Amino acid sequence: MPESLHQQQSDHLQHLLNAYRSLMSQFNLDAIAIYSGHPSAHYADDQLANFQAYGHFVHWVPLVDAAHSWLVIHPDARPTLHLHAPADFWHQPTTLPEEPWVGEFEVVLCNDIQTPQLSQNSAWIGDAAALEQAGLAVPEGAANPHSLLLALDELRVIKSDYEISCIREANRLAMAGHQAAHAAFAGAASELDIQLAYLAASRQRESQLPYASIVGMNEHAGILHYQHYNAQTTHQRFSLLVDAGSRYRGYSADITRTHLGPDAPALFEALIDALHDLKDQLIEKAKPGQRFTALQEEMHQSLADILIHHDLYRGSAESAVSEGVTRAFCPHGLGHLLGIQVHDVAGLRTPAGEPAPAPSEHPALRLTRELEVGMVITIEPGLYFIPMLLAPLRQQSLPINWILVEQLTPCGGIRIEDNIVITENGHENLTP
Q1: Rg (CA), the chain
Q2: Could you say which cofactors this protein requires (predicted)?
């Protein structure tokens, strides 16, 4: 770990400490405690589901697998990390790295599952229902006060230099995986083989991924959250869509690439190029003060132009948008906040915590805020040939070139996604 990252992390922790102490003063609290969470067993089984610690815990402590642990922030003392590290020969307990950040905490290693002692005038955040269902003790104080949760979510919207460095490194690792996935596809690998190549090159096991990789060949590229990995090779290779990320010190990358197969029609290659260009054009307009909903609308205007330019739609750009044609070809939002969580917190709220829901014409949009310096977001335009969404358009007298649509349907679709940070001068693309 570079020395500069150690210093960035120290500054990050000092910023959090100042912010939490300010909130304790604002809400007249003796302490704020954060529960990391714990894994749950599958129904009628003793096997545990994959686990990752609660985002607000990871905001302080880069221990994504630390279960049954607590962090207590005090107004006038070092934060106390109650780390569950039992003596165990069945599993290896969580251990602390030899890194400077550990010295910022009073560390209490707990052999047994313990709940910190809090006053009634404290607040704690975490999964209260899970604690009760597991028969674990619930601490004193207020559980998940709404106003405090809103304020803590808002603290995660603007990323520190340390957080941006972590997301940048997560992007570097993920892109190594994407390059390996592309090479495996060129070698006629199956979806499963492509996923395994991705994991190997990005140096992670599947349970460490920030989200389940989407590895879809041919028509599977048109299933937005395709969840399977076909172990059989296909006789024809029209396309490959890989939406896959990585995690570094608790922070996520979320990158998508679409690749041309040798059996795809020539038009599909032109459309992939057009989506790369659109992604770059939208990124260029990402800057402080820009409304993300305006970028969403601009994506649809540009998609209309792409459909017309490539003879998929023979009407006006205005009618392609107003008649819902572009929404049928791209039903998802342009992007979202990115951080500890892939779809990070507070994207559909104002800075004051008021609801800012997605507009009715774009219900899947996950970010409606104005962009600010320090936000990390994804930009991910798409263009798909999804029979379920296109079928209603067939019932209307719209000038869609259905012959070309049917030729492209076996390709599934296209999505191109980069991760960017908003800067004072505009933006920086974190995706190499």
Answers
A1: 24
A2: Mn(2+)
Rounded Cα distance between 144 and 157, Å, is: 19
User: How many independent structural domains does the chain possess?
Assistant: 2
What are the two backbone dihedrals, phi and then psi, of residue 200, each rounded to the nearest 5 degrees?
-65, -45
Strands 251-260 and 239-248, bridge-based pairing = antiparallel
Q: Identify the domain boundary among 155, 185, 202.
A: 155
pLDDT by residue, tens only, the chain of 432 residues: 677 999 999 999 999 999 999 999 999 999 999 999 999 999 999 999 999 999 999 999 999 999 999 999 999 999 999 999 999 999 898 899 999 999 999 999 999 999 999 999 999 999 999 999 989 999 999 999 999 999 999 999 999 999 999 999 999 999 999 999 999 999 999 999 999 999 999 999 999 999 999 999 999 999 999 999 999 999 999 999 999 999 999 999 999 999 999 999 999 999 999 999 999 999 999 999 999 999 999 999 999 999 999 999 999 999 999 999 999 999 999 999 999 999 999 999 999 999 999 999 999 999 999 999 999 999 999 999 999 999 999 999 999 999 999 999 999 999 999 999 999 999 999 998
Q: Is 76 assigned to a binding site? A: no
- Domain shared by 369 and 286, yes or no: yes
Does the annotation place 243 within a ligand binding site? yes
Residues 187, 307 within the same domain: yes
The domain in which residue 305 lies consists of 161-429
Q: Under a CB-based contact definition with an 8 Å cutoff, are residues 191 and 217 in contact?
A: yes
Contact predicate 80/72, CB 8 Å = yes
| Residue 68 known to bind ligand | no
128: domain CATH number? 3.40.350.10
Residue 37 backbone zone (phi > 0: left; psi -120 to 50: alpha; other: beta)? left
Are 222 and 126 part of one and the same domain? Answer: no
Whichever domain contains 309, its CATH number is 3.90.230.10
93/196 same-domain check: no
Residue that finishes a domain, picked among 113, 132, 155 = 155
380 is in an annotated binding site: yes
Residues 198 and 150 in one domain: no
